[in-house]
Structure formats: structure tokens, C-alpha cells
Amino acid sequence: MGVLQEAGETGPLYNYFASAPFKGFRYGGTDPTREFERLCRHLVAKKVAFYPRRHDYLYQRFHEALRDQFILVFGSDIDDRRVWVKLAQRIGTYLPASYSLEYVRDAVWNTHVNLVDVMNPGIPDGQIRKFSTLEALINYSLVESRPLKMFLRDTDRMSLLSCLLRRMPDDPAERQVFEEAGPGGPLYDFFAKYNHRGFRYVPTDPTTEFDRLCENLGIPWRSDARDGLRDEFAQALRGQFVHIFGGDINDKVAWETLCRRAGLRPIPEDLESLQQLFIGTHTNMVDVMNESIPDGMMLTFTTVEDLSEYSFSARKIFPGDGVAKVDILSVLLRRISLYH
């Protein structure tokens, strides 16, 4: 039995389509967004008053029902291994005989599928279309498909659905934060000093690139030379953060850019709400600076303790020495130091 079939033909989405005012409409158990469009045509044929404001109301209720159906089927707790296992089964992600929460979460997280397709009972488990890049998924969801295959944002920002939707922009034309900034900056300048030694910086995990540089230069792990080079690297990485995002804690644009980078939408309009939103989203800052991770694809954690454990176990520690006490970084990095 498939994942969606286990829940049966019941739940918020089925109840929505079975509403009495819809005059005998039968949900076909296929693409939910297309079924909503068919419902609208059905109501027009039945000569139901269907002015734009009523359409918007029905559309909002439909998406609330779709969201609640997703939660009914899969759950919402991002720390529950079972919800990730069920998603893996639904989208056809291979899992070994034994696996941890971190393993299955990463496997599902890095599989690009459309969530409306995930909720389509007409698509068997394991046959949902997968996309090789996030850009291809965005184009399919927000440009090619008619109607658009999209969920509305979940009001619970730390739910499973909210986390999965962070990778999807509101506007398909929206550029990635690092694409908008372009290459260059203090970190690029730091690594470029060693081009003559045959090293070429690859803008991925900056801490991994630093380790690769040391290996390229033949610098031992525990040595004064490595410590000195690490200090230079730390200064460059902090400078790169300021180059991309800014440093003034009262800079509204800086916090908006950080929220875009983490995929936190809708983005608040006032400074205090922006600060609270990003600070309350526990994200590793080395991952934030990893250009190979698309916007909204960084892992987030429900507690600072979990973030700290991930940061130290993965050796993804953003250097904090020398950060100004009123700098954005001082606020974001202080959380990790308190738990180490």
C-alpha cells in the first residue's frame, strides 16, 4: 500500500472537496491543484456565483486543506525520523538497512521534488519526478506547470513543510544571494594569494577549502604556521560575510538578505521582526557562507544545542575572534559559543 493510500480517502483535503456548497463535486484523487481548477469550472457550470473575492477565499481554504493533508500524512516534527522515512518512501529515496535521522534527513533534503506531486495520489510511490537542480525544480513548479504547482507557506516556520518550502522563492525570477553579489571579496582575495602554488579556490564550504589549502601547502595540522594561516583565513571569512550581507546590526537590508539566504518567507517589514526571525532560525553560519548550497537549502535546527552539536561534530565553526560586539556576526555566533 502506498504512503498516501495508508491514510485512506479521508482527511482535510477530501473534506474540502466534499463540502456541501460544491454541489456534488467529486475529488478525482489526482493532482490537487488541477482538481481545484476543475472545481472552479464545476461551480461555474452549476451557475454558482463566482466573483473574484469568492475565488480567492476558496483558493485560500484549498491550500489550508492541502497543507493539513500533508501534515496528516507525513507529520510536522523535523526531529522525528519517521516523517523523513515516510517521505523517503514516497519519493523513492534509497535507504540502507540501518540509518540515522541525520542520514535519512539529508537524503530526502537533497532530493528535489515538487510537493504538490508528492500529494498526488495518482502518482505511485517512487515514481515522482526528480530534478537534478533546484533551478529545474523552481522552473517546473512556478513557470512550466499550469496551474502552478505550489503550496502556500505554513505559518509554523519550524514545521517539516515550512522547512521543505524554504527552497522555493515567491518569484521564479528572484536571483540567488551569491549570484546577485557575484564572485570576489576578501575570501577570494585570501585564497588567490596561493594561486602561484597551484591552489584554486572552489566556492563551497570555506572551512573545507581552508583545510585543502593547508594540505596543498604541506602545512601540518598542529603547527604555528597553520595557526597563523588560520588567523588570516578567519579575518577573510568574516570580511566576506560583511561583503555579502553587511555588518551593521541596525541595517535592515542586511537582515532581509540573511532571511532570503535562509529561505525565510514571508520576509517581515520591520527591523526587529527581521532580527527575531533570523536569530530564531538556528542555521550554521559556515553553511550560510557555502556558495554551493542554494538559498533555503541550509539545514535548520529546533534548538541552539542541536545547532551547536552539528557545528562542532561537522567541524563547521565560523571563527568569532575579532568580531565587533555590535556586529551582526557577534549576535549570531555568540549562541554557539555558549554551548561549547
UniProtKB/TrEMBL annotation:
Provide the species name. Ephemerocybe angulata
Q: Under which name does UniProt file this protein? A: Uncharacterized protein
